[in-house]
Amino acid sequence: MSPYDQAQRLGWSPGREPADPAAARRTLCHELRRARSDAGYTRRRVCEVLGWSLAKQQRIETGQVGLSPTDLRALLDIYGVHDRQARERLEQMAARSRREQWSAFRQVLTAQTRAYLNWEGVASRLRHYEPLLIPELLRTEAYAWAVIRALAPPDTPQRLMRLRLEACLARQAVLDRDDPPSLYFVIEHSALYRPVRAGNTRCPVMTEQVQRLCELTDRPNISIQVLSPRLGLHRGLAGPFTLLDLCGDDSVVYLPERAHPALTTPDDVADHERAFVDLAAAGSPLQANARAPGPHELQPIPQHAKVTTQ
Predict the structure, then answer these.
(1) Closest to 164 (Cα-Cα) out of 196, 139, 133, 183
(2) Residue 241 bridge partners (DSSP)
(3) pTM of the predicted protein model
């Protein structure tokens, strides 16, 4: 097979190599899975040949960890990818995927949060339940800034709050990537009518925020469900959670309020999938013509607002 043919088999053409770390990691995961499939290897067989644990191989193929040059070369050898040009391109892609995309925000994002954002960047589907606030991925700049100011300790430097805002807005790039994930959100009704103002100004923060939510629900890959305040007790009251579908059939549950927030066992994933399905079924989705809060931002979104579950 010629270098060009092998490169094409691995999914490349000139100029298609992704530049940012998240895109590089998504593409690398996809191509490694395809190369393994083409070579006729199962995950377990790869681990037997290379002496790896199944957990390590899974983390590599789902983009949960960066791939070292040594490990990449070992995989390419057993997959029969020997063409120099194809290998060099994969190695360059692996190098880009190892870059710490969120290192500029170390002062305001924990190591666990940065790891989560790496997963979020490679996810094909995200399902998120948020009980108190508008989810960060959906926030306007004004709403995000108001929340940051409200939750920050009194002596927090302005510089760090601004850095936290930059991190929030940078995270939203996932909404506009070329291959955006499917995004499903369930939020509490109270999040839509909680009064929010930008400092001492009369900026209509919630009016703009609700308009933004309505605009996002017009996208075919985004669904926002709203739970009625009359629903009563339910599983979501235990706290926010996110389900991420990574490369292939692998999923992660992320519980931000726990000391060890990432759960990967099939039982944990299945349990939270059931919880999310129940919450989504109990909600009624936001409509593009939903009424935004009025001048004092105290009016709730009407309960007859639009419903879309998919």
Answers:
(1) 139
(2) 129
(3) 0.74
The token duo for 51 is 């002496």
Location of structure tokens 């409200």: 150
Closest CA to 123 of 183, 205, 196: 183
Per-residue model confidence as pLDDT tens digits over 9-47: 434 333 344 556 777 877 888 888 889 989 999 999 999
Q: What is the pLDDT of residues 260-303, one digit of tens each?
A: 888 888 899 999 999 999 999 999 888 733 554 444 443 333 33
Residue 205: name the closest of 130, 137, 296, 286 by CA: 296
Burial of 150 (0-12, 13-18, 19+ CB in 10 A): exposed
Instruction: Work out the end-to-end distance of the chain between its first and last CA atoms, rounded to an integer number of angstroms.
Output: 44
Task: Classify 43 as helix, strand or coil.
Answer: helix
Return the amino acid letter for 281.
A
CB atoms within 10 A of CB 201: 9
CB neighbour list of residue 133: distance below 8 Å, 6 or more residues apart: 147, 191, 194
